[in-house]
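Researcher: Next sequence.
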Amino acid sequence: MKYAVLGLVAASLVATPVLAWKTEFFNTLDTDGNGLLSVVELEQTGCRVNKKLFAYANTDKDAGLSKNEFFGNRDLFRSCK
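Model: Next structure:
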């Protein structure tokens, strides 16, 4: 039990900076601050976007990619800086 608790604490300490980095990166790309990344926003920040792959990544078919959709398909947007 003691080792399980220590493992959870260590995992949370390691994961926190990663989550903060993802949020900061996503917010940098989300220039209008609506919580979704559009094709235009991605292209304006230097990403090369294939519109078919963007549509594939946009699983709920709304106005853009949520943070989960973007990072879940990050390999589709390799040129984003």
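Model: The chain is about 60% helix and 0% strand. The longest helix spans residues 2-29.
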